[in-house]
Design goal:
The protein is mainly alpha-helical. It folds into three domains: about 90 residues, no CATH class; about 45 residues, no CATH class; about 140 residues, no CATH class. It has a three-stranded antiparallel sheet with strand order 1-2-3, sandwiched between helices. A hairpin with a 4-residue loop joins strand 2 and strand 3.
């Protein structure tokens, strides 16, 4: 379909001056962001609106990328893969395509200025999450605005995946003040997906601000074990373990289960090294036994650490069990079942029994 001559002329002018372009399909308008202001033109369709808009986008593709098939062929091939070259990103924001904006937001080459333009094009929760995951963006001028948007929008999220990712990003970006963090923490007490977001961010976010736990990964397994045992017994560690237990007891779907297990695995990750995560309870128990035995012989190299750990053989095995938690443990179950809620939790009991036992052991008083 041919564009009206007036529209062709105005689009050519917009494309040469615009930093970003968006299309309002309801009002049939094209808006452009320039250095100092925005411009808006009303389209004059010469045929069916949908086909006319397609022709508008093809015209913008020629002007922005030099190829009439730049969208959808180029975007569908590369979007969300991180394979977009830096020089392409600015052009993609002049296509008037939502998926092109998402591609820019997901690019590892995103910077603060491009993020500002992308946010003008498509201010949605998905785009905000993608961009806030970039340290340069989180620490840039647009970071606080993205954080505030996600915080305000959080009550309207309706999937565990979105809630978990949003909470984790808000915490890890460190853009929330203490009052906002406190409100989010209070919400997590009654919302399992929100709690899992805290767990995914790490143990130092569940309580009032504390220093993140640091483990000397250059030390031997014996020293790492002692450090983890000490942290697990600390108020911060106990809160993390208690919240993980509650999250598994109240899990509502696959995402809340998997992300809680991943959080537990990350907590004890220094202990497992390069060990492949188990995919069954039987494999889990065999690996725990093997690692516990090997750890026991290593402990002899440090008499003090060995004496301390000898008093906690069960806690040592429990920590190793948690270090082996992750998605592989429940992947076979979810490959065959789409159960959710209480039915899912009941069917998962045999699989998660060692995990609950490990949590109980570590939460007992020394």
């Amino acid at each position: 379909m041919q564009l009206a001559d007036e529209d062709t002329l105005r689009l050519n002018v917009l494309a040469t001056t615009a930093l970003a372009i968006r299309i309002d399909e309801k009002t049939m308008c094209v808006e452009a962001l320039t250095e100092h202001q925005t411009h808006r033109i009303e389209l004059k369709p010469t045929g069916h609106p949908d086909r006319y808009l397609r022709a508008v986008r093809e015209n913008l593709s020629v002007l922005a990328l030099g190829t009439p098939g730049g969208y959808p062929v180029f975007i569908r091939r590369w979007t969300r893969t991180g394979a977009l070259e830096t020089e392409r990103l600015a052009g993609l924001l002049r296509l008037g395509e939502a998926e092109a904006v998402v591609a820019v937001a997901a690019s590892p080459n995103l910077d603060d200025e491009l993020a500002r333009r992308a946010w003008w094009c498509l201010p949605t929760a998905e785009v905000a999450r993608l961009m806030l995951s970039h340290p340069d963006v989180a620490n840039g001028s647009i970071g606080p605005e993205l954080s505030q948007f996600l915080l305000d929008h959080l009550p309207f999220e309706d999937t565990s995946r979105s809630i978990i990712d949003t909470v984790k990003l808000l915490l890890c970006s460190r853009l929330l003040n203490e009052e906002e963090s406190g409100r989010l923490r209070a919400r997590a007490e009654n919302h399992v997906a929100c709690m899992v977001g805290f767990l995914s961010a790490g143990p130092n976010y569940l309580c009032a601000p504390e220093a993140a736990p640091r483990f000397d990964t250059e030390s031997g397994n014996d020293a790492l074990m002692e450090q983890l045992l000490q942290h697990a017994g600390s108020p911060q560690g106990q809160t993390f373990l208690r919240c993980a237990q509650q999250a598994l007891e109240k899990a509502i779907d696959m995402d809340t289960v998997v992300d809680t297990l991943n959080a537990l695995g990350d907590y004890g990750k220094p202990l497992r090294g390069e060990t492949v995560l188990p995919r069954s309870v039987q494999d889990l128990r065999q690996i725990v036994e093997s690692l516990t035995n090997s750890s026991g012989t290593a402990l002899d190299s440090d008499e003090v650490a060995a004496n301390q750990s000898a008093k906690n053989p069960d806690r040592q095995s429990a920590l190793i069990t948690l270090s082996l938690c992750g998605e592989p443990l429940v992947a076979p179950f979810f490959a065959k079942s789409d159960a959710v809620g209480s039915l899912m939790r009941k069917k998962l009991e045999p699989v998660l029994e060692p995990v609950f036992a490990a949590l109980e052991t570590l939460m007992k008083q020394n």
